[in-house]
Design a protein that fits this description.
By secondary structure, this protein is mainly beta. It folds into two domains: 348 residues, Tachylectin-2, Chain A (5 Propeller), CATH 2.115.10.20; 172 residues, Sandwich (Jelly Rolls), CATH 2.60.120. It contains four helices and 39 strands. Strands 24, 25, 27, 34, 35, 36 and 38 form a seven-stranded antiparallel beta sheet that branches. Strands 17, 18, 19, 20, 22 and 23 form a six-stranded antiparallel beta sheet that branches. Strands 26-37-28-29-30-31 form a six-stranded antiparallel beta sheet, with no helix packed on it. The longest helix has 10 residues. The chain starts with 19 loop residues before the first strand and ends with a helix. InterPro entries: ConA-like_dom_sf, Glyco_hydro_32, Glyco_hydro_32_C, Glyco_hydro_32_N, Glyco_hydro_beta-prop_sf. Pfam families: Glyco_hydro_32C, Glyco_hydro_32N. One of its GO terms (biological process) is sucrose catabolic process. Belongs to the glycosyl hydrolase 32 family.
Length: 604
C-alpha cells in the first residue's frame, strides 16, 4: 500500500484518508501500551458523506501516526447503528492494572435523516453504544448491551441527541456530593434552545449512564456580542467540558467547547458571491465559553446548570467538531478538529482523491495577560471573549482561552528542506508598502513573524503569491482599525468552481503597563502560519486560531513568494523577526500505513 503522503498535492503533516472524513472521535491514551489513539468518522466507500464508520490511527508521540490495516474499525453493521456510527469518545483509562480493556462510546444511528431544521426530530433516531478492545486497540468489538441508551430522555422533544463525551469532573462531584465520571450528549430542546444532556457514569459500570438533566439553559441564537462572541445557535454538537489552568497554575476556569448549529451566518461569508456550482456552507460555528456550575434547585434531575460568563470562537475559519482529551503524560488539554471541504464540488473532491482532514493537534489552556490598560480600539468591557479581573494593586488581568499547536509540531522544522530568517525591516516606506521575504519551493511550510506596531499603523500582513502566475495569491491581513484578522482568498485559485469567501475573526492587541518603569507598551503581533497542500492554519498571540483551505489548482506545485505589507504612517510596522521553514519533516508523511511502518521498523 503506498505512503499516504506520496500522492501529488496530498497533505504531508495532517491526518486524512483516501475518502471522506469528518469529525475526530475518541482521542485518548493507553498507559499500558504507551499509545495514543485517535479515531475519525469516515465514508470508506467514497469522497462524499455517507456510510458513517470509524477510521483509526495510533501514535507514540502525537506526531507520527500509524494506520492499522483493519480499516474501518467500526462500521454500521447492526440494527441499532444501521444508519451510521457517528461521533464518540474514549473512556479515560484509570489506574486499574487488572483491567486491560479499552472502551469507546459512539452515537449509534438507526434512523436518518434528522436535522434541527426539519422538526420533529424522530424519537430514538440516535442512541448511545459502546465498543471494547482487549488487545490494546488492535481490534474492537461492539458490546452485547448495545444500545446502552435507546435515545433522548423521556418527555423532551429534542433538536438533536448525539456526540457523547465522558471524563471526570471534580467540580460536579463537589456539587453532587459523590464521585463519578460524567457523560454528556449534545443537542437541544425544540423551541427552547441548545444544550447538552448530562449523565453520571460509574467508573466500574461504564455501560450505566444515569440521566441528571440538561446541563445548560440558553435561549435560541444566544449571542452576547455580535463582534467578539459567536452565535450559540439552535442545536449543539460535540460538546466537551474541561477545567483549564493558567501556565502559572494560579487560576483555573471551567470551560465548554462546542459546535453551534444555527441559521445566523457570519456576515463576511453571507455577503460573498460564491459560484453557483458550489453549495452554500453549512451555517455553524466552533465556539467556547467559560462559566460557573451551580445547583439551581433540590430537584433530583435538571438541577445542575452551567452559566455563561465569557466566550468566543475556538476557531475563526471552517474548523468544526472539535474533540479533546487530557494527556496524562504532559497534563495538557489537547484538541483535534475537522477541516471540512465545503468550498469545492463533489467532483473536485473525487478528482483530488480525498475530502476532509484533521487539524494539527492544539493545546488549550487558560491564557492570562497581566497589567493590561486598554485594547487598540475596543473598550475592555466590550470584549466578551476576555474576562477582566481587577487585582488588589489596582492593575487589570485579562483571562481568555489560550490556543496554539502542541509544542511537538516544532520538531518538524529540524528535517525541513530549507530554512531562512529575514533581516529586520520596517514598512511602509515612502516608495513602497511591500517587502519580499523569500519563497517556498514546497507545499508544506511554516512561517513565524514578530511585528511591533506603532499607533498610526492601519494594516499589516502577508501576501502569498504564485511566482509563475501572479494573479494567484492569498493574503493574511491584520486590521488594527477594524480589529480583525482576515484571510482574503478571492484570488487564491484560477478554478471557477471554488468558493473563495474570506475567513475572518475578531482580534486586537493590548497595551500593558510595564513593571518598574510604568510606561505603556503595545504587545507585539506574533503570527504563525502553517501550510500543508490545500490546508492553511494560522495562529496569533496564543489566543487566535483559524483553519481553512486554499485551492491553487495547477499552481500548487509552483514556487510561492512570501511578501510582507503594511499601511499607515511610514515605518509604523517593524518586522523584528521572520523565520520560514520550507519542506517540513523533509516532506515525509506523518501518517503511515501499518505495513510501511513495520517495514521501516525492521530496517532499523
Amino acid at each position: 500500500m503506498p505512503d499516504r503522503g506520496s500522492r501529488p498535492g496530498h497533505p504531508t503533516i495532517h491526518i486524512t484518508a483516501p475518502y471522506w472524513i469528518n469529525d475526530p472521535c475518541a482521542p485518548g491514551y493507553d498507559p499500558r501500551t504507551g499509545l495514543y489513539h485517535l479515531f475519525y468518522q469516515c465514508n470508506p466507500q467514497g469522497c462524499e458523506w455517507g456510510n458513517m464508520s470509524w477510521g483509526h490511527v495510533t501514535s507514540k508521540d502525537l506526531l507520527h501516526w500509524t494506520v492499522p490495516s483493519n480499516q474501518p474499525v467500526l462500521e454500521p453493521d447492526h440494527d441499532y447503528d444501521k444508519d451510521g456510527v457517528f461521533t464518540g469518545c474514549f473512556l479515560p483509562v484509570m489506574n486499574h492494572p487488572d483491567n486491560e480493556q479499552l472502551t469507546v462510546f459512539y452515537s449509534s444511528v438507526r434512523q436518518l435523516p434528522f436535522h434541527w431544521s426539519t422538526p420533529p426530530y424522530p424519537r430514538n433516531a440516535a442512541g448511545l453504544s459502546m465498543a471494547n478492545s482487549i488487545d490494546g486497540g488492535m481490534t474492537w468489538e461492539k458490546s452485547s448491551r448495545n444500545p446502552i441508551i435507546q435515545g433522548e430522555p423521556e418527555g423532551i422533544q429534542v433538536t438533536g441527541f448525539r456526540d457523547p463525551f465522558i471524563a471526570p469532573w471534580p467540580e460536579m462531584d463537589t456539587l453532587r456530593g459523590q464521585r463519578s465520571l460524567y457523560g454528556i450528549i449534545s443537542g437541544g430542546t425544540q423551541d427552547a434552545g441548545p444544550t447538552a444532556f448530562l449523565y453520571a457514569v460509574q467508573e466500574h459500570q461504564s455501560f450505566d449512564w444515569q440521566y441528571l438533566g440538561r446541563l445548560a439553559d440558553f435561549p435560541l441564537r444566544f449571542q452576547p456580542s455580535k463582534k467578539w462572541c459567536g452565535n450559540y445557535g439552535i442545536n449543539w454538537e460535540c460538546v466537551n467540558f474541561m477545567d483549564l489552568e493558567s501556565e502559572s497554575a494560579s487560576a483555573t476556569r471551567t470551560c465548554l467547547i462546542l459546535g453551534a448549529e444555527g441559521d445566523v451566518e457570519r456576515p463576511h461569508i453571507e455577503r460573498y458571491q460564491r459560484p453557483v456550482t458550489v453549495p452554500a456552507r453549512t451555517v455553524r460555528s466552533l465556539l467556547w465559553m467559560f462559566g460557573d456550575l451551580a445547583a439551581v434547585s433540590n430537584h433530583p434531575t435538571d438541577n445542575l446548570k452551567f452559566g455563561f460568563k465569557h466566550g468566543g470562537y475556538l476557531d475563526h475559519g471552517s474548523l468544526y467538531a472539535a474533540n479533546t482529551f487530557n494527556d496524562p503524560i504532559s497534563g495538557r488539554r489537547i484538541m483535534y478538529g475537522w477541516i471540512p471541504e465545503e468550498d469545492i464540488t463533489g467532483d473536485h473532491a473525487r478528482e483530488k482523491g480525498w475530502n476532509g482532514s484533521l487539524c494539527l493537534p492544539r493545546q488549550l489552556f487558560l491564557l492570562s495577560l497581566r497589567n493590561v490598560t486598554r485594547a487598540i480600539r475596543s473598550k475592555l468591557a466590550d470584549i466578551t471573549s476576555m474576562e477582566m479581573v481587577i487585582e488588589p494593586d489596582g492593575s487589570t488581568t485579562l483571562y481568555s482561552l489560550g490556543i496554539r499547536p502542541i509544542s511537538e509540531i516544532t520538531q518538524l522544522r529540524t528535517k525541513c528542506i530549507q530554512a531562512y530568517e529575514a533581516q529586520p525591516f520596517s514598512l511602509p516606506q515612502s516608495t513602497h508598502n511591500e517587502s519580499r521575504i523569500g519563497h517556498t519551493s514546497t507545499s508544506c511550510w511554516e512561517l513565524e513573524a514578530t511585528v511591533s506596531l506603532g499607533p498610526s499603523c492601519q494594516t499589516v500582513g502577508l501576501r502569498i503569491r504564485c511566482t509563475g502566475e501572479e494573479s494567484v495569491q492569498w493574503d493574511i491581513v491584520f486590521s488594527l482599525v477594524e480589529e480583525t484578522i482576515t484571510i482574503d482568498r478571492s484570488r487564491s485559485t484560477t478554478r471557477g468552481d471554488v468558493n473563495t469567501c474570506p475567513e475572518q475573526g475578531p482580534f486586537t492587541l493590548f497595551h500593558t503597563m510595564t513593571d518598574g518603569t510604568h510606561t505603556e507598551e503595545l504587545e507585539k503581533f506574533r503570527l504563525r502560519v502553517i501550510v500543508d497542500a490545500d490546508i492553511v492554519e494560522i495562529y496569533a498571540n496564543d489566543r487566535f486560531a483559524l483553519a481553512t483551505t486554499i485551492y491553487p489548482g495547477s499552481h500548487a506545485a509552483e514556487k510561492m513568494e512570501i511578501v510582507a505589507f503594511a499601511t499607515g504612517d511610514e515605518e509604523s510596522a517593524r518586522f523584528e523577526q521572520v523565520n520560514v521553514w520550507d519542506g517540513l519533516n523533509g516532506l515525509e508523511s506523518l501518517v503511515r500505513d501499518e505495513e510501511i511502518g513495520q517495514l521501516d521498523h525492521q530496517r532499523h
